[in-house]
């Protein structure tokens, strides 16, 4: 399976999780980026699939939604999304090429020219 997948929950114990899920989904919708939402509450097998695709280091402690993947590649959780947003690197977070001539594309080019590694996830 390819493309962006956002693992969420429809049973919300706290408002923060709902807001975080919505921020990711709203960004994808606003930028016409195709994605699939997988509700961990409804699809009982999805959690095991999600965990199998995650790096071992990310499975420590509680793994809360939202969790984001591009195909089988782990993008990150909301904290990583927020850090990418603060740094203007949201397409990079989703492991997508930024729009041509965008500020993100220019930033990435500048980092590459200066030999700076980009690892926000």
UniProtKB/TrEMBL annotation:
<dbReference type="Pfam" id="PF04908">
    <property type="entry name" value="SH3BGR"/>
</dbReference>
<dbReference type="InterPro" id="IPR051033">
    <property type="entry name" value="SH3BGR"/>
</dbReference>
<comment type="similarity">
    <text>Belongs to the SH3BGR family.</text>
</comment>
<dbReference type="InterPro" id="IPR036249">
    <property type="entry name" value="Thioredoxin-like_sf"/>
</dbReference>
<dbReference type="GO" id="GO:0005737">
    <property type="term" value="C:cytoplasm"/>
</dbReference>
<dbReference type="InterPro" id="IPR006993">
    <property type="entry name" value="Glut_rich_SH3-bd"/>
</dbReference>
<protein>
    <submittedName>
        <fullName>SH3 domain-binding glutamic acid-rich-like protein 2</fullName>
    </submittedName>
</protein>
């Amino acid at each position: 399976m390819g493309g962006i997948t956002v693992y969420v929950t429809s049973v919300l114990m706290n408002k923060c999780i709902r807001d975080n899920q919505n921020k990711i989904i709203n960004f994808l919708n606003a930028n016409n980026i195709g994605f699939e939402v997988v509700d961990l509450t409804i699809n009982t097998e999805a959690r095991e699939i999600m965990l199998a695709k995650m790096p071992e280091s990310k499975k420590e402690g509680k793994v809360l939604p939202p969790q984001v993947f591009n195909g089988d590649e782990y993008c990150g959780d909301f904290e990583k999304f927020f850090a990418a947003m603060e740094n203007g690197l949201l397409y990079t977070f989703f492991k997508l090429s930024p729009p041509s001539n965008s500020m993100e594309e220019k930033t990435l080019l500048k980092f590459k020219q200066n030999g700076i590694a980009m690892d926000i996830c």
